[in-house]
């Protein structure tokens, strides 16, 4: 994907990026050991030949089993800092001034009592080279109709509330089944958790509407909701699109992720332009950048190729900063820097 000098110079933001522990660790260790990391590009090419739909999403994660064994774990502080610094450095090198990284589900990192201290250390190291960068951490909680998983989600919620006192920025919820209407009782659990999270000062975002319109209406009723991850299918239903526009909620668009994981058939068919036309604020995001072979610079270049001009792309960055889960003080200082440009 060619990146013009104008797009390269734009300040960028990535609000929706998962830590991708195993692939990211492989990349960090490969660099240290002087070997080639796992070839995700070939994997993405193969994925694109599979029928679109949610099965492809599962296949993206299945491949982690093919990664070389490392012996390293999230329990080692230096390894964790190196992995998180790699995420931040990759974005900052592309011009990112804000990156919010998601941790959760199978990650143990968030449960460490020193999690936020280590995350801030990763941020500090990257800021030595890229002083404009700000980074935040977000907890990711999946709710499934299974008592054991629900108890686990309850523990994750407590972990997020504890981390909030150390500076965790927000919580991201996903309610399953993801592509069919989930049990309203499960959504009630999400609503209660979101209320507690919002009371603790955490920002709220929800993964929804990636493969169907299911759950979008329920997601829009989440207390304190500020952002939606994907929401691709909101444009299929005029009524949904209308309530999304009225809500003021920001949509985290993940263009390459949606194409690779089969949520949309092509970049051209992605509804990002329709969101903008309906006055819905959008941001550009990488989601799982290693697994879907992208970077935040590439996402801005793709949006540019879809016809968004530099002013519109810069607006996406401003949308992200305004909708970020930073403290008001950090947000205002970053906004001042951006407006001075
Ligand atoms: Zn995601």
**CATH topology tier name:** TIM Barrel
CA distance, first residue to last residue: 26 Å
Order of helices and strands: HEHHHHEHEHEHEHEHEHHEHHH
Strand portion: 5-15%
Bound molecules: zinc ion
Any idea what the radius of gyration is? 19 Å
Helix content: 40-55%
Tally of domains: 1
Approximate shape = globular
Number of helices: 15
Largest sheet, in brief, is: 8 strands, parallel
Name of the CATH class: Alpha Beta
Question: Looking across the biggest beta sheet, what order are the strands in?
Answer: 1-2-3-4-5-6-7-8
Main traits of this protein?
341 residues, alpha/beta, TIM Barrel, eight-stranded parallel sheet, 8 strands, globular, binds zinc ion
Structural description of this entry:
- By secondary structure, the protein is α/β, with parallel strands linked by helices.
- It has one domain (5-340): Metal-dependent hydrolases (TIM Barrel, Alpha-Beta Barrel), CATH 3.20.20.140.
- Helices cover 48% and strands 15% of the residues.
- It contains 15 helices and 8 strands.
- The protein has helices spanning 5-9, 21-33, 40-47, 54-62, 77-93, 115-129, 147-164, 184-199, 216-220, 238-247, 255-260, 272-277, 296-305, 310-322, 328-340, and strands spanning 12-18, 96-104, 134-143, 170-175, 203-208, 225-230, 250-253, 282-284.
- An 8-stranded parallel beta sheet has the order 1-2-3-4-5-6-7-8.
- It is globular, with a radius of gyration of 19 Å.
- The mean pLDDT is 95.
- The chain binds zinc ion.
- Zinc ion (ZN) binds next to β1.
């Amino acid at each position: 994907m060619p990146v013009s000098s104008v797009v390269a110079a734009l300040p960028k933001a990535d609000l929706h990026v998962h830590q991708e522990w195993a692939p990211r660790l492989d990349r960090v260790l490969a660099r240290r050991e002087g070997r080639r990391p796992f070839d995700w590009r070939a994997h993405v090419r193969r994925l694109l030949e599979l029928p679109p739909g949610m099965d492809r999403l599962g296949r993206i994660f299945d491949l982690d089993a093919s990664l070389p064994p490392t012996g390293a774990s999230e329990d080692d502080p230096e390894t964790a800092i190196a992995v998180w610094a790699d995420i931040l450095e990759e974005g900052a090198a592309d011009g990112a001034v804000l990156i919010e990284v998601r941790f959760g589900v199978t990650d143990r990192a968030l449960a460490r009592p020193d999690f936020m201290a280590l995350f801030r250390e990763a941020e500090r190291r990257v800021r030595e080279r890229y002083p404009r960068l700000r980074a935040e951490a977000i907890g990711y909680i999946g709710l499934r109709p299974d008592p054991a998983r629900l108890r686990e989600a309850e523990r994750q919620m407590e972990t997020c509330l504890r981390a909030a006192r150390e500076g965790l920025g927000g919580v991201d919820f996903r309610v399953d089944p993801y592509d069919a209407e989930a049990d309203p009782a499960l959504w009630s659990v999400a609503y209660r958790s979101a209320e507690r999270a919002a009371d603790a000062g955490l920002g709220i975002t929800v993964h929804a509407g990636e493969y169907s319109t299911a759950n979008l209406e329920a997601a829009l009723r989440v207390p304190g909701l500020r952002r939606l991850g994907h929401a691709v299918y909101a444009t299929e239903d005029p009524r949904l699109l209308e309530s999304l526009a009225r809500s003021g909620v920001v949509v985290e668009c993940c263009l390459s992720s949606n194409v690779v994981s089969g949520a949309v058939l092509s970049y051209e068919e992605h509804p990002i332009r329709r969101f903008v036309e309906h006055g819905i604020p959008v941001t550009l995001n990488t989601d799982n950048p290693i697994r879907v072979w992208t970077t935040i610079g590439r996402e801005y270049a793709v949006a540019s190729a879809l016809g968004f001009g530099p002013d519109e792309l810069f607006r996406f960055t401003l949308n992200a900063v305004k909708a970020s889960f930073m403290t008001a003080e950090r947000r205002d200082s970053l906004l001042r820097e951006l407006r001075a440009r």
